[in-house]
Write a structure and sequence with these properties.
The protein is mostly helical and 134 residues long. Helix content is 51%, strand content 6%.
């Protein structure tokens, strides 16, 4: 698979842990999906990010030197901070996907059960919901 360009904010959302992707959580899904070659549900993102982070830092070690400040509690503040960060480090950066077999995906419902432990999980059957709505 070919290298693809990703925004600095997407990369930092994984390497720093603060959501500063200009396209919000969609940017995290996009980057993790590309790097791992797999689609993920929301509950799978933290584990995937833990695996993807070292891969990104191997490709771009300088990312480890960028700390996203706390207190970016609005989109306006995030975007303002990103302007300065992209002026200093560039906006778009090439990312290589992981080699096949480097990332081991998990079946989503099994992983959810493991995360939930003894807590109950509500299941929704989309077909049953459609029938109930008439």
């Amino acid at each position: 698979m070919a290298t693809r360009e990703f925004h600095l904010g997407q990369l930092l959302s994984i390497t720093d842990g603060h959501l500063v992707s200009p396209n919000h959580i969609a940017g995290v899904y996009e980057l993790i999906g590309f790097v791992t070659g797999q689609a993920h549900f929301t509950h799978q993102l933290p584990r995937a990010a833990d695996v993807v982070k070292p891969w990104l830092l191997e490709q771009h070690p300088w990312l480890a030197d960028i700390t996203v400040p706390d207190g970016l509690d609005s989109e306006e503040k995030v975007l303002r901070w990103l302007v300065g960060a992209t002026e200093k480090h560039g906006a778009m950066h090439p990312v290589e996907p992981m080699p096949e077999g480097m990332y081991v995906g998990r079946e989503p419902s099994t992983e959810l059960r493991e995360i939930a432990g003894d807590r109950p999980i509500l299941g929704i059957d989309p077909e049953e919901e459609r029938r109930a709505r008439g």
